[in-house]
User: Fold this.
Amino acid sequence: RWDRKFLTRRGLVWAIGLAIGRIQLAPTALFSTLSTRAGGLSYDEASIDPFLPTDLLRFFLPHFELPLGVPFGTHGAEAFLYLGALPFFFFLVSWGATQPLARFFRWLTATSIAVSIIYSPLFWLLHHLPFLNYFRGPSRWLNVGLFAASVLVGFGTDRFIAEGQRSQATRRLVLGFDLACGLVIVVSLVISGYFVFFEQSPDDILRWGERIFHWPEEKILQYRTLLPQYLLVVERIFFVANPQTFLSLAFLAIAVGWLSSRLHSGRFAVPALLLLTILNFIAVSPSAITYVPRVVIRNAEFPASFVSLNPGRVFIFLPDLSIRDAVERYNYLPR
Assistant:
C-alpha cells in the first residue's frame, strides 16, 4: 500500500542514502565542471565497451575477450562476468523459481543486460537523461545485474537440491549445460592441439588464404600485421597450458561430474557445493580480476609524488595537457 507511513519510510531511506552518498557526490559534481565531461559526453564516447553476445563465453572462460575486437570493433564488457562453474548452472536453474523475490531479481538481471548490450536503445534513452549523460560504459550497468544473478544463484541452489532432476525441464537444463561445457573443453583442446602440433607461420596461413579466397595484395599486407597479434590472443585464451584456461576448464569438468554424481542429492550436497565454489574462486578469480601491484603504488608517478611533497595542494583536470608539462613548462601550481 502506498499510504503515508510507506512513503515516509521510503523517503527516510532515500534521505539517509543521499546523505551518505553526498560524501562522494558533492566533490564529483564540483570536479566534473572542470573536466572534459562538463556538459556531458557524446553518445559515441559514452557507448564504449558494451556487453557483446560473445561475452556469454566469459561465464565459462572468465578471461575470454574478442581477439583484436573482431568483428564488433570492441573487446567487450568491462564487468567481471564469472559466477563460477556450478553457480552459473544454479543461476540458470533459478529461472524456474516461482518466489516473488526471485522474479524481481530475474527482472533486474534481464533489464541490466538489455541496457548494457551493444546498440541498446535503452542505453540510448538513458544517455539523454540529465546527469546520466556524464557516464560512459554501458556494461557498467551489468554490475547491478551480476548482483541480482548472485542472489538468484541461491534460489537456484535451493530449488535444485530440493527437487533434484525429477522434472523434465531440469534434466534438459543439465544436458544443455553439460553439452555447453563439453563444447568449450573440446574447442580449447582442438585449438591447443593446433598450436602444439600443426602451428603454421602467419605467412603460411596468408598464402593459404590467398590461394583459397584470392585475397588482394592490400588485404594480405594488412593481415600480415594483424594475424600474429590475433593468434597470440587466441592462444592465450584457449591454450590449456595457460593456467587461467586450465583451471577454468578443470572446474567446468568438475561441475559436469558433480551434476552426474550422487553428491548433489546426499547429506553432503551443500558442504561439497560450498567447498567447490570456494576453490573455484580461489583458483580462477585472481587471474581474471585486474589488481594493482604493490610495487606500482610504491613507485608513485609524478602527480602522486608531487602532491605528497606539497601537502594541501590538489590538481584540477587539465584536458590535453599532462600534469608534468603543466608544472615544468608552464609553472602551473596546483591549488
The radius of gyration is 25 Å. Confidence is low (pLDDT under 50) at residues 317-321. Residues 168-198 form the longest helix (31 residues). The CA atoms of residues 49 and 74 lie 6 Å apart.
